[in-house]
Structures
1.
Amino acid sequence: MTKYISVGKILNFHGIKGEAKVGFTKNQEEFFLSLDCVYVKSENDYKPLKIEKSRLNKNVALVKFEGINSINELMDLKGAFLYIEENTIREALDEDEFLIDELVGLEIFDENGKKQGFVIGVSNNGASDLLSVKTNSKKIVLIPFVKAIVTDVFIKERKIIINNIEGLLE
């Protein structure tokens, strides 16, 4: 079964010729503009939407879908999430990039092999991604997802190795 991952949302229309304002993940402009097809969920099925053209406008993408030529044809899609097949995203990931759902649940170990907690979420503060970690003492701390602190990620082994600098987990 194909797995789909959300890459954007139709926020509104732009102009009268069926162009959509689409919000997408921060810092993913290049990836989003490279897409030629996305999917919209309709009941329990995913329907393809071919992208005729797309461009950036401030902090949104303006997207013209094939076969949608007026505001009226676009209105039913307003608020809809846009998806792509998981394999499409995986092919575009660099060696040190991961999907958020791959990181949630991974155990955190320090450089000495001592378990420190596990990942409960991932967020972004504008400068970098942050791992939300529930520590062994049940506290929730934020760990910057940068190479100086997160030294290794082992998805198959379900663990992350961190450089436990003083004060990081306090």
2.
Amino acid sequence: MNFAKRNKSIVDFLFILALFGAFAITALFVVLFGARIYRTTVSNMNTNYEKRTAMAYITEKIRSHDYTGGADVSDIDISSETDDHSVLKLYQEIGGKTYITYLFLADGYLREFTADESYDFNYKNGTDILAIRDFSVRKENEGLYRFDITDTNGENTIFFVTLYSGVDGDGDDD
């Protein structure tokens, strides 16, 4: 037998070409499926980030004002084109002066603004904290606040924050 001198035919070439084509198509499908999985993972991570960041930020802000008279909710007219929006007001006394920190929605962002209590609130002021679609806060009872946030993907998150100071077991002020 002469293994060194084998006649090559077109069938051998087509078999190798078909094998290479199958490998290329399989590799392409693996890359496409991987890209889709990656895109979904990134989207879920962004949604999780927005939810967790908003919840953690608001919770820490309200907990840092966990004393009698430290937090309140009011509706403020943000602009003439929109309805009233709920605003979380956090009070703090420094050097005999009372300062108010406002947490509110304006221009697609959760914003924070701190000023002396005599300052007239203006929604155009403030620092952008996080891009969100909607934000509302409601005082359920003394010491319990309900937050409703819609992120940029349209997913709604509802959570509650409880303040402990100034509230006894019946929900009445001490």
3.
Amino acid sequence: MSPVPITAEPVKTFKIDGQDVSARETESILQAARAHNIDIPTLCHLEGLSSTGACRLCMVEIKGSNKLLPACVTRVQEGIEVVTNSERLVKYRRMIMELIFSERNHVCAVCVVNGHCELQSTAQKLGMDHVRYPYLNPQLDVDASHERFAIDHNRCILCTRCVRVCDEIETAHTWDVMGRGIGSKVITDFNQPWGESETCTRCGKCVNVCPTGALFEKGKSVAEMAKQRQFLPYLVSRREAMIE
């Protein structure tokens, strides 16, 4: 039997911030930018998980279009010119960050991940030093029914990383999203207490991919918890090797 020929994946050449770059046609603008050490902020994206475009922080401009496009779910195209850091984008990203902070209750001084938080560090990088919008101050619950972990819905930014890692990596699909708009919340199983979940494997993957202090390990005090995400690229690479 003759070997099956290997077809090279087509490569697209284009520009990001005036720099000539190339990427496979199946890659996103965000992947291409990171491969060339070009920083585009994001909170919902995590390498190894599917992309959803939930946080909208990775919006970029493409010359010739008035639309802002999410870099994490926009495929590269031949000849396009991408702008990642214009005055318009900076203004837009700061507005998004301020809305995230105003929507729920992010009090960094008393958070277990203070100093280790992606939301906090991204806000600092974007130069956000105040919030112009009125705080909604919702009274959301804290579910500490799990034997090892807890979830504080006041700190959840609805990035759905926990949903995706549980579905795509652990394959338990314990987490999901209930509700719409500002009333949305992540839930376990059919909105039952986390500690009563029959599908949760107690693996802790959801806790470690969470970009804020919404999901945390019990027994941690203020600023004591640093998330560990090294497992994700390892598990993804092992799975791909098994498929091949």
4.
Amino acid sequence: MSTGFNTRAIHAGQEPDPATGAVVVPVHLTSTYKQDGVGGLRGGYEYSRSGNPTRTALQEALAALEEGTTGLAFASGLAAEDTLLRTVCAPGDHVVLPGDAYGGTFRLVSRAHSRWGLEHTPVDLNDLDALRVAIRPTTRVIWCETPTNPLLNIADIAALAEVAHEAGALLVVDNTFASPYLQRPLTLGADVVVHSTTKYLGGHSDVVGGGLVTADAGLGEQLAWSQNAMGAVAGPMDAWLVLRGIKTLGVRMDRHGANAARIAEFLLGHPAVGAVLYPGLPDHPGHDIAAKQMSGFGGMLSFRLAGGEEAALQVCERARLFTLAESLGGVESLIEHPGRMTHASAAGSPLEVPADLVRLSVGIEDVEDLLADLEQALA
């Protein structure tokens, strides 16, 4: 039976427990499983690195939400990225990165994987001609974030998929900022979706995790083999927390987006603000593409201070309801200075972010209280 997104979020992978009828998936806190004779496995479970029923439930939910064939859950978003790249690439291969990739992704590729022999080129993914020039015979992956972190740029997923597939490369889309509620890249031609499940999928700032979802079952099998062989899997309690968060993803994202839209309009008219980066604004350069491939514009926005870096730092320090912290996607609002916090590893590189930039993860508090906090922080 075909079901809507919110129904899948509540039920996919989360059927009542057959043993007890419990409507909430149990947390299977076990490292190993009794075998009914040598090789006689119950449900295929033998060791929890290889498989755990709570993680299986999360993986089924991830695949259902992204409309893919295979979902895999990891200990962190970067563990998912590392497993993916080491599976589909070999030393000497090449990856195209966005010109404003997440700092952790850039660090992983440019520092950790470069020692392994993986080469990379940062490119503005809105310039398809520049992308085609950057592609090499050894290019295995075109990596996309949309919206990007922290500049909120938008890439055309369908157009990138066409270019990638012409070159025989995979299109990988980091869908963390949008979440599968607002955007499903596999339906637009992407091959793999990446998530930091720490963020909107978990939604409560109480878990660290990552996920991969593939369009192709064969690639999913390869990645599942690597997941077991490399071992950076989500623990059962972490998997359970993400499952808990997924159930309310839709209603939370509606509120995140509504609050962010109000705040973007407020910042746009404030004299201390030089620019507002939010794809929901009609004059955002990616607005039309975002409106085409997303069902909403999300809860993330950034803005630049007319007074420069010192003004940006002061706003971060004066905020009260907006907690000064890294990460994003929780029910509480967060504020940060990307240049000195989440994206410090990109300093001095082509991906360095502006020093006057402030990033907001807009929570689900009463928006009038959030607006008042920003008003006093900007005063």
